[in-house]
Amino acid sequence: MFDNNNLIAVSSLEIIKRLPTPKIGNINSTIGYICGIYTNKNYRKQGIAKKLVAKTLEYGKNIGITRFQLSSHNPIAIKMYEDFGFKPNINSMILTIK
Asked: What does the pLDDT profile of the chain (98 residues) look like in tens digits?
């Protein structure tokens, strides 16, 4: 995300192909791993990270991803991810789209 020509925030989506796991609802075997979310300290608490996560999820859904995963130790970020529907898992958080 840019403010004029200044990069102020980033988010990335790694697309991981794995064997299908029907037991957990991941039939198409593709996992979208959301990572690298960062907002410049001067732009925090303005909802920018939330917008980036929403756009990242939207992009993933549009290319057929039904299972997303991410990791965070930041309590504020974890609350935001839970608001999107992510659930804690052993070392990460998972969102399955049905």
From this structure: 999 999 999 999 999 887 766 665 555 678 899 998 999 999 999 999 999 999 999 999 999 888 899 999 889 999 999 999 999 888 888 888 87
SS3 42: helix
3-state secondary structure 49-88: HHHHHHHHHHHHHHCCCCEEEECCCCHHHHHHHHHCCCEE
Which pTM was predicted?
0.83
The total number of residues written for the chain in this structure: 98
Q: Which of 65, 66, 71 is nearest to 89 (CA)?
A: 71
Query: Strands across the sheet with 67-70, in order?
Result: 9-17, 30-39, 67-70, 93-96, 87-88
Q: Determine the 3-state secondary structure of 22 from DSSP.
A: helix
